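Blinded run. Sample ID left blank on purpose so nobody reads anything into the name before looking at the predicted structure. Input follows.
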Amino acid sequence: MSNFQHKNKRITSAVLLAAGTGSRLQPLTNEMPKCLTEVSGSSILERLTHCLRFHGFRRLVVVVGHLDDCIRRFLGNSINGLTIDYIVNPQYMTTNNIYSLWLARKAIQESFLLIESDIVFDASLLGDMLYPDCIAVSHMLPWMNGTTASISSTSRVLKLNTGHCDIPDRSEYKTVNIYSFSLRSWRLVEEQLRRHISAGRVNEYYETVLAEMIADSTLSFNPVFFNSGRWYEIDTLSDLYESELIFTENNARINRRNPYEGFYVRPD
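Blinded prediction complete.
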């Protein structure tokens, strides 16, 4: 379905998973959560809130855990026109993001954008993710690892590959860890999450659930292609260094009125 057909279903709510300890980014995350790590003078969370508000979002649900008081101080109850709601994952030390997403279920009664707290991206890339049932993907680069998506010649997501793949084929793309869900799709995901949590599978990634549902055709996503030189996933200090090279800003802070200003993107 085209974005034009989706014009009355534009998403205005987002869920941010920000409970983890960010252990691979220590010592920076010893005293602050990963989402408050700065990239070229602006934190990941600051960039995200400006981006969401620019694109018309009204609500942000944040799942917190590690050093949650830092996030609460930064966001408060609202920021940049976004209403902020908090969900606490008290077991963030012993669970994975599947459990954080499960805990957020009661706060979600509408279509929404799901995003993780370690992604930095050019704000313009988000435009096509504002409609339900999309997945952000990127051409593979040597630094990328983790979940990939197999895309058909007709631009449909055929499957998610959560295992390691040394030599991906040309139909495989890296997932950017940004998804959008219609309320109908979310209800189906919620039920599958319940099965996993009930079985004690709290240390998995939520992508495992999505992969199962795509495989049995319960769930369907449209791919949105992110330019591989305009986003970065920050897990380690090395990742932080590389992201600094991409997102060098002319100003010390993001321009308050326009998040596109001040971004420098390294030419491909």
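Unblinding after everyone has recorded impressions. The two ends are 30 Å apart (CA to CA).
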